[in-house]
Structure formats: C-alpha cells, structure tokens
Design goal:
This protein is of the alpha/beta class and 245 residues long. Helix content is 32%, strand content 18%. It binds iron/sulfur cluster. The site of iron/sulfur cluster has 10 residues, from loops.
Length: 245
Amino acid sequence: MIFKEKLAKSILSESKIFPYVINAYTGCQHSCSYCYARYMKKFTGHHEPWGQFVDVKVNAPELLRKEITRKHRGRVWVSGVCDPYQPLEAKYRLSGQCLEILAQHDWPVTVQTRSPLVLRDVEILKQGAEFEVGFSIGTADDAVRRLFEPAAPPVEERINALTELHRAGIKTFAMIAPILPGAEDLPELLAGRVNHVILDRMNYHHADWVYQKYRLEDSMTDEYFEGMDRLLRAALRKQGIEIQY
Ligand code: SF4
C-alpha cells in the first residue's frame, strides 16, 4: 500500500449527487471489489491497483476554511470517491476536521461510510443541524461481505455504529448498494436504527470475477436483482422503514 501526503488545490467541489462533495483522500484502503470510484485512478498518475494507493490531502481543512466563505451554502457529501473514515483517517483526522468546519458554518452534510471510526466524531455530528450519516451495507452475511469487501469493516460493526449514532439523535440511513447475496436479512437488522434506506443495484461489473470465482453467477442476473429489489422493498415497508429511490 502506497500512501503519499499531497497539497490539494481545492477541496469543496461541485457534485452531481449533492451540491458539493469533499474527498480528503484520493484512493481508498477499503478496496471493495465492485468500487465505482476506481475510475479516479486515471487522474492520479498511480500505477498500483485501486485500493493499493492513497493520496492524503493534508491541507483539506485549511482549504475548506477558505472555500466555505466564498461559496453558497449547500449540502456536502462526505465523501464521493473514497471512504472518509478509511483507516488513514485515524491518523490524519482530515474528514473529522472538515466536518467540524462545516458544523461551525451550519452547512448541511451527508456522511457516507463503511467504518465505525465515524463514531469518534459523534459530538461534532450532533452539533450539525442538518447532518446525516449513512452506512453502505450490501449484505447481512459477513461471509459474503468478506468475498466482496475483504478490507472493509464487518457488517456487525456497521450495524452497531448505526445503533449508536441513531441513539445519539443523529439522522441515519443505510445504503443497500450494491445489493449482494444475503441482503434479504438486512431490513430486520436495520429496524429502529435508520431513518431511511436507499436501495441501489449499482453497476457491479468490476466484481464479476468475485461472482464467478465463488459460483455466485445466479446472484448477478437481472432476474435476481429485480426479485431481490421487490423482496427488500416489501420487507422494509413491513419494518416501517422509509425507502428512498
Ligand atoms: S469504501 Fe467506497 S470508495 Fe472505498 S473502495 Fe469501497 S466502494 Fe470504493
């Protein structure tokens, strides 16, 4: 794994999903097999495979302090093409510092992660008037999680983190995306822990080799995804969980 400290030119970028996005890191140690963000590699000059390099934007908080005063208030996605709480965040605390600045300026924020490290910033998250935290969880079965996301935190840790955040009064959501085998048990696990769920099949073609290697081809057909989508929507409604998208 190659880590490099870099000075970024800007940090509060416009985004298609939310008005703004902050990525304090380029690259992601979680290295999920299906990761859609791997297209970023071509902009980095790195030759290592996706998941094997991270550029650390050490001046991210300093840049944000300046840029936030020059832009119109809008929801900020933390983060779009990396996990803001990947293991390096434990050392650098760049996402945490950015959240602090966003809370001080009262900007709305959507945090999206797979890591319970986010709990370290629970006091900051409580300060933000329009902050929400989402966990991406594609399956309830940790054996399946290990096949597709071997370097990301276990399912149980994510569910426990959602529980803690929700109890702390922070708005929480889960992204069941991509929908992986074993997702059918998630609605029951998520009940009482999230304000809403986002369902998205996502483009999984980077992970085709995982499906093939573990003989899960039946779980990558259109029929499978359509059936699973229907089943999840019905189960989520039964649990009284709002579905977005
Ligand atoms: S956590 Fe997100 S950004 Fe990181 S490798 Fe996984 S899918 Fe990609």
